[in-house]
Automatic annotation (TrEMBL):
It comes from Xylaria grammica. The keyword Cell membrane does not apply. The lineage of its organism: Eukaryota, Fungi, Dikarya, Ascomycota, Pezizomycotina. Residues 19-41 have a biased composition (Polar residues). InterPro entries: Adenylate-forming_domain, FNR_nucleotide-bd. Keywords: Membrane, Transmembrane, Transmembrane helix. Residues 16-43 are annotated as: Disordered. It comes from the Eukaryota. The chain crosses the membrane at residues 83-101, 130-149, 156-177, 197-216, 228-247, 259-284, 385-407. This is Uncharacterized protein.
Length: 499
């Protein structure tokens, strides 16, 4: 039987119409979220019928392509890796141009400028305002644009590929630069060339430490150590870079018979370094100690409320109680005054996922936490590129999704799989999900076990005719859903871990 029905005083005839219809006289047809039956309640007094129709279960289509092509296209050749490869290819072309134009004898100053340019690009793609600007530009595309364009623009959150690609290229360029200045010192053993050489080796040593610590396997296993290495080695490299820049300018000034000031002003290195340093200072200059008001949801989760500023949807913040050693990024949820509807702060949902989060859950009293930098757009902001979406979350992944649901910018269906939703996260969070999608599928894993999450996601895509799927979950489930959708031709997006 067709799920779309027209009702006229009890008569039922198939029609081609929207999923919710008003009958010619008094009937109403609405789709339900579950079951495959039709329930009819007829009022004898009013001679009308209320019929609830549930869409039939959609058969999960087969995956497109061979198993090998699926893995190559959707796993190994990810957008992140493509961007990384593109950045590296551009640098390789520039290097070949240098070799051709200098007949195999590149100038150390030009090589140093290439290293500085890549370092600037690397830092820019970690600077909050710049990243937000990139997001704003990419989500400008209207829904009238073809889906094949919009689904590619939505991958802007892979910008980490630019950061790591440019950073790795900077290390390679600087390694080449260090080789050249070593050769120059052998040919010209002066004090200033020795100072230039020593500072170059310090910089390259710090770069290698950063690059090694950033390897995905080491980063996952020793995340706190990675943060410390990345931060302190980066600061040391930046200071050494300034010392090296001045030492290098001193060498050039002697060779040009000019002043150091003249050389610095005419050096691209100097200006690249000023911009790089400014980006670093901009983030840390906004380090603040703010009061947080905890709302304990359960022994597994808490909601931390901040009142120092309002926060629009689709932003995240970095929080810490030890600002020099570790930071934790969270998506924010606008806090609204019930009476006026005015945003008067924001909150983040924290679930037990490690020592730091467990400690926060165990502190129900008012206290202070550090917040650094400007609020930053994230993955879910790209949902604005689509006319209809399906939002999938597991456990505390619903926290970041609450910001999207609050924004109410895109029609959506919601699938949330978690244990005891009301007991773990409270009726308020469950209510917010229900308000955003009255037919939300909230799957209690304690009662029903773990769902076939790919099948359930596809069912909502089928029912709502969604253009894309967004998932916030752990790495394993995220990869499973994204791969399961993409190999069936459905755009799907999930967080990038260790980017």
């Amino acid at each position: 039987m067709s799920p779309d029905l027209d009702i006229d005083h009890g008569a039922i005839t198939p029609v081609r119409a929207p999923s919710t219809l008003q009958g010619a006289s008094s009937g109403t047809v609405t789709p339900s979220t579950r079951a495959g039956s039709i329930r009819s309640s007829v009022s004898k007094e009013k001679d009308n019928a209320v019929i609830e129709v549930t869409p039939e279960r959609a058969a999960l289509p087969g995956q497109l392509g061979s198993e090998l092509s699926q893995k190559i296209r959707h796993k190994y050749a990810s957008s992140y890796r493509k961007i990384f490869g593109t950045i590296f290819t551009i640098n390789l072309v520039v290097f070949l141009v240098f070799l051709i134009t200098t007949r195999g004898n590149p100038n150390s100053r030009e090589i140093g400028s290439a290293a500085s340019a890549n370092l600037l690009v690397c830092i820019l793609f970690r600077q909050e305002e710049f990243v937000n600007l990139v997001y704003e530009i990419f989500v400008l595309a209207p829904h009238s644009w073809p889906l094949f364009i919009r689904k590619r623009l939505a991958k802007v959150f892979h910008y980490g590929g630019v950061h790591s690609g440019a950073g790795t290229a900077a290390v390679v360029w600087y390694l080449l630069y260090t080789i050249l200045v070593t050769k120059e010192y052998i040919d010209d053993r002066q004090v200033d060339t020795l100072v230039n050489l020593i500072t170059s080796y310090i910089v390259i040593a710090m770069f290698i430490v950063i690059l090694t610590a950033a390897h995905p396997d080491l980063r996952r296993k020793y995340h706190d150590h990675f943060e410390a290495f990345h931060r302190f080695a980066g600061w040391t490299a930046l200071l050494a870079f300034w010392a090296h820049n001045i030492a290098s300018a001193n060498v050039t000034a002697r060779q040009w018979h000019a002043t150091i000031g003249y050389v610095l002003i005419h050096s691209p290195n100097f200006w690249f370094l000023i911009l790089t340093t400014s980006c670093t200072i901009a983030s840390w200059s906004r380090l603040r100690h703010h009061t947080v008001y905890p709302e304990k949801l359960s022994d597994h989760a808490t909601r931390l409320h901040f009142k120092y500023r309002g926060m629009n949807p689709f932003y995240g913040v970095k929080i810490s109680d030890k600002p020099l050693t570790e930071w934790h990024a969270f998506a924010t949820i606008p806090d609204v005054e019930p009476e006026s509807g005015k945003i008067n702060g924001f909150s983040v949902v924290v679930s037990n996922a490690g020592d730091w989060t467990k400690k926060q859950i165990g502190k129900p009293h008012e206290r202070k936490l550090w917040v650094r930098g400007a609020p930053l757009h994230g993955l879910l902001y790209t949902s604005k590129l689509f006319a209809r979406i399906v939002v999938v979350a597991t456990g505390s992944g619903i926290g970041p999704c609450l910001s999207l649901l609050f924004a109410d910018a895109t029609p959506r269906r919601v699938l949330w799989s978690t244990r005891d939703p009301e007991k773990t996260y409270g009726p308020k969070v469950v209510g917010e999900v229900r308000r955003a999608d009255p037919k939300a599928v909230i799957w209690n894993t304690n009662e029903k076990g773990y769902p076939d999450i790919v099948g359930e996601t596809y069912q909502l895509v089928h029912e709502s005719n969604a253009e894309a799927v967004f998932i916030i979950s752990n790495p394993k489930v995220t990869e499973k859903v994204v791969f399961g959708m993409q190999t069936r031709g459905i755009p799907a997006y999930g967080a990038i871990f260790d980017s």
